[in-house]
Amino acid sequence: MTHLDDAFLADWAVHSRFGAVPGTNGVDRQAASAADGEQRAWFAKLLEQRGFTVERDAAGNQFGLLELVPGAPYVLTGSHMDSQPTAGRFDGAYGVMASAHACFRVAEELRASGDATYNLAVVNWFNEEGSRFKPSMMGSSVFTGKLELEAALATTDPRGITVADALDALRERGEGDVFGGETGREVASYAEIHVQQGRSMEEDGVTIGLVDATWAAHKFEFRVTGAQAHSGSTLMEDRRDALLGAARLVVAARELVDEFEPGQLHTACGELNVYPNSPVVVASEVELLIDLRSPSAEVIRDAHASLQRTIERVEREDRVRIEVTAEHSWDRNPYPEAGVELAREVAEELSLPSDRVMTVAGHDSTNMKDTVPTVMLFVPSVAGISHNLDEFTEESDLVAGVNHLTGVVRRLAEGALTA
Amino acid sequence: MTHLDDAFLADWAVHSRFGAVPGTNGVDRQAASAADGEQRAWFAKLLEQRGFTVERDAAGNQFGLLELVPGAPYVLTGSHMDSQPTAGRFDGAYGVMASAHACFRVAEELRASGDATYNLAVVNWFNEEGSRFKPSMMGSSVFTGKLELEAALATTDPRGITVADALDALRERGEGDVFGGETGREVASYAEIHVQQGRSMEEDGVTIGLVDATWAAHKFEFRVTGAQAHSGSTLMEDRRDALLGAARLVVAARELVDEFEPGQLHTACGELNVYPNSPVVVASEVELLIDLRSPSAEVIRDAHASLQRTIERVEREDRVRIEVTAEHSWDRNPYPEAGVELAREVAEELSLPSDRVMTVAGHDSTNMKDTVPTVMLFVPSVAGISHNLDEFTEESDLVAGVNHLTGVVRRLAEGALTA
After folding, report:
1. ipTM confidence
2. B295 neighbors B332 (Cβ within 8 angstroms)
3. Domains and CATH numbers, chain B
């Protein structure tokens, strides 16, 4: 360990305390929660101590800006500090802290050499997780023009609080843009590092994952409509039970997986809401989300067709109506090959074992790669445990990731991918 | 229609307006809601105008007392005015209003004749529905000593509001007892009328249902425990999905029905809560309620055994834990035969078609019958629609029910079942 590694680990230890769940190794730091606000305030101070200027844009994205060359474009790097409820401390947060330290190191080098051509910026994207406010990747979606600012700000959490009000309560909503528009600032390139949230790198002995594509996915929001009835006295044949229909979909989604080769399809239902949700009333309405994910777009299409046949059978047999109220899909989505190659070269230089890897989960870089040259990196997750208090990454891997990202940011600041 | 019937229908029309759901025929008047409070205040005035004294006990039960013979025991009759969310306007509310008018009529007769031997009382039991505060039949359970007052008052709704606070906000919590204890007042007998919440009476042309027993039931609260995981990237074989386990139980409960003769088993799951209920997290915990109901205790036992085999299979195959966190069961539970016979005689006198009928749903009379001579009556429900905005009972049946209940209260006041 160098003194730079020690400095990273010291800040990382403090960083992990915000929203810590007592008696566990994890955190509960949902977007624009009090813990998110406290961590943002601490992080702003850390950046300012290192000479960065901190600004928030109107979507609540938090930026640390270091202008070395007035008017030059910025190399941007970051991730997100918000978490799922009762989640691990690495997801997103590691990427933000690694980005900050990578920038600190490269900034010091550039200040010493005096030959900077780009500026540096760190970003903490607002609401990547999408647990409190949907959709996920909200901040980077607004930043890249994929989501309207007004729609994002008007989004409400389950208690009816809007994004705008939640950000205002923390004084974390800026007034306009930080990049683009009238600011004159430009992003030249983007880099992000994240824990893998899978176990293949650990099993294969890979320290640096060179992310080359995102899995294809099809996400559905379903509304199942039945009719309220007394759950005791109503004859079974008179019932139109929305919760029964929804339960059949949840089971069907799991069984879909077995129609394909192992590892070719992941399905899930993580959210399901019942109305009126009373012990003695047959439910009249259930809303649920079902995701299909695969490295193959063809598997997604076949799985969708099979799910559709199940839906029609459930509608007929259980006399409920099943509508898709929203859906969102994407094909297998590659990261730019030049970024993968750049990351491979840096790993080789540092003698870190690396390999190409796909991401199943979405990341803010999924948005950014469509607008600027982008590098996406993974470090291993022990046993692939993710969105869980017990998520863990070894300290040596955390340190290796910061060193690698520093190499990437250095090259980007030298004009790699953009010059 | 007599002028007495007209008076009942006029009050009934006003009564149905409290908590009315705009654009529907139904109501939303959960226990200790603002609408419940407004209706209670109106009802208190109505009773007082007819010479009754209104008192609430410490559990929020609302009583109208008419002392005709100082120190004599009371004939009590009533039901409940609270509703499920978005429910019909007849369930419970009809019974309270029918009871009030039955007492008004018998009181007038007894005042005229001057030969009263019992006093009369009307009751609006607190929280029969159990949708906002569990368990159901809360007020009558405290009244009959089956539930501790302190436990009832400390019960919270999903927002954390206690029964005590909710009642206090409406000024509907009394300070002590209205009957028993130091009051010196005694209940001699009890009568209740309710809509059937089934369709057998309508189909069989029966106007007055002579309720002779409650179905046997076994109610379970289950907790399914899995492990939080990323719903995209976690390998399917690594998941321990609590919502999948719960969905399998919901489906299994429905399929249980087909193992028995038609009509011999009703099963339901009306309430299911998911944690963390986030679109991208495999659920770690789901709580759900499953009910088994049957006219036969043996069917309940066999169904329970079958459900237990399913639970063991789901635990093994889906690697989740399924615990029973609460359960509550009762055998087929008869109403006193003397009360059934009394009700039959009154129907005969009035030339109203009557027949014995079982109740699948629980009622406050289920509690009362264990402490005093009790009569339980039904009027028909069109198509058996219940716990639904479209619940309906024909006006002629409402009127017939009031006339019949009046006959029952008259006989009880003459000492039937108690003298």
Report:
1. 0.89
2. yes
3. 3-214+333-413 (3.40.630.10), 216-330 (3.30.70.360)
* A window 228-247, beta carbon within 8 A of B: 228-236, 238, 241, 243-244, 246-247
Q: Between vectors from CA B85 to CA B83 and to CA B86, what angle results, nearest 5°?
A: 100
**pLDDT digit string (tens) for chain A, length 419 residues:** 899 999 999 999 999 999 999 999 999 999 999 999 999 999 999 999 999 999 999 999 999 999 999 999 999 999 999 999 999 999 999 999 999 999 999 999 999 999 899 999 999 999 999 999 988 999 999 999 999 999 999 999 988 999 999 999 999 999 999 999 889 999 999 999 999 999 999 999 999 999 999 999 999 999 999 999 999 999 999 999 999 999 999 999 999 999 999 999 999 999 999 999 998 999 999 999 999 999 999 999 999 999 999 999 999 999 999 999 999 888 899 999 999 999 999 999 999 999 999 999 999 999 999 999 999 999 999 999 999 999 999 999 999 999 999 999 999 999 999 97
Structure tokens at B69: 């013979």
Task: Give the Cα separation of A306 and B396 in Å (integer).
Answer: 52
- For chain A positions 351-410, those within 8 Å of chain B (CB to CB) are 359-362, 383-389
* Residue B204 in contact with partner chain A when CB distance is under 8 A: no
Contact predicate A377/A401, CB 8 Å: yes
Phi-psi region of B167 (alpha: psi -120 to 50; beta: other; left: phi over 0): alpha
Residue B65, classified by CB atoms within 10 Å of its CB into exposed (0-12), middle (13-18) or buried (19+), is buried
